[in-house]
Amino acid sequence: MVNVSGLRPESHPDVPSPGKRMKFPRSLRLNRRGDFEKVYKQGRRHFAAHLTVFYLGRERGDGPRIGLRVGRVMGEAVERNRIKRRLREAIRLHRAELSSAVDIVVHPKRSVLKVDFAGLEKEIQRALEAVERAVAGP
Predict the structure, then answer these.
(1) What fold, for 28-133?
(2) Domain limits of the chain?
(3) Which of 48, 56, 104, 138 is deepest in the core (most CB within 10 A)?
C-alpha cells in the first residue's frame, strides 16, 4: 500500500519504528463525558509548550485512564485525526511510567501539528512524569 506521498506507511516520518504493535486498550481510556467533566472541574493542570494536561487522582482503580480532546479549532478532520494518532502513539510508548490511579485528559495546542514526533514524545513523557509526581505526593 502506497499513500499519496509515495511512501509506504511504515516508512512515513510520523510513524514510529515498526515492531510488535501494542494497543491502546479501552480499559485505559476515558470515554464518558462525565469523567471528562470531573477531571476539568476537580482536577489540576500541567502546561507544556504544545499541550495542556488535566489530571485527577482516583482513590481506587487499575492504573491510569487517558482521554484526548481535539476540537474543530485544531483544523479539518484529517489534521485532527493525525494529531490524535500521534498523541495516542506517544502516550502508548510512555504509559508504563504511570503507576498511579489517575484520570488524564490531554488538550493539544495548534502548534502540535508542526512539532516532530520525537519532540512530541519527549513532551508527553515529561508531562506524564509531572502528573505521576503530583499524584504520588510527597
Answers:
(1) Ribosomal Protein S5; domain 2 (3.30.230)
(2) 28-133
(3) 104
pLDDT digits over 41-66, tens only? Answer: 999 999 999 999 999 998 887 788 99
If phi > 0 it is left, if psi is from -120 to 50 it is alpha, else beta; for residue 63 that is: left
Residue 53: phi, psi to the nearest 5? Answer: -115, 125
| Residues 26-38 pLDDT 10s | 777 888 999 999 9
Question: Which set of grid coordinates corresponds to residue 25?
Answer: 486498550
Q: Based on the number of CB atoms within 10 Å of its own CB, is 13 exposed (0-12), middle (13-18) or buried (19 or more)?
A: exposed
DSSP symbols for 49-112 = SSEEEEEEE-SSSSS-EEEE---GGG-SHHHHHHHHHHHHHHHHHHGGG--S-EEEEEEE-GGG
Report pTM: 0.78
Q: How far is the CA of 99 from the CAs of 24, 25, 34, 67, 114, in angstroms?
A: 16, 16, 23, 17, 31
